[in-house]
Amino acid sequence: MRGEGAAVWGLALGQTLIYAGLYYGFAALLPDLLVATGWSKQMLAAGPTLAFLVTAVLTPFTGRLVDRGLGGEMLILLPILGALGLAGAGFAGTPALWLVGWAVVGLAQAGSLYDTCFAFITRRLGEGARIAITRVTLVAGFASTLAFPLGHWLGAQFGGRGGLAALALVVAIGAVPVNLWAVRRLRRLERAGTPRRAPTEPGLLAAALRRPLFWLIAVLFGVTMLNHGMLITYALVLFADRGAAAGTAVLAASCIGPSQVAGRLILMLNEARIGNLGAMRASLGAIVLATGALWLAGAAPGLIFAFALLQGAGIGLTSILRPVLLAEKLGRRGFGVISGAAAVAPILAIAAAPTAGAVLLSLGGVPALLAASTALTLIALSLGALVMRQPSQ
Question: 4-388: what CATH class?
Answer without folding.
Answer: mainly alpha
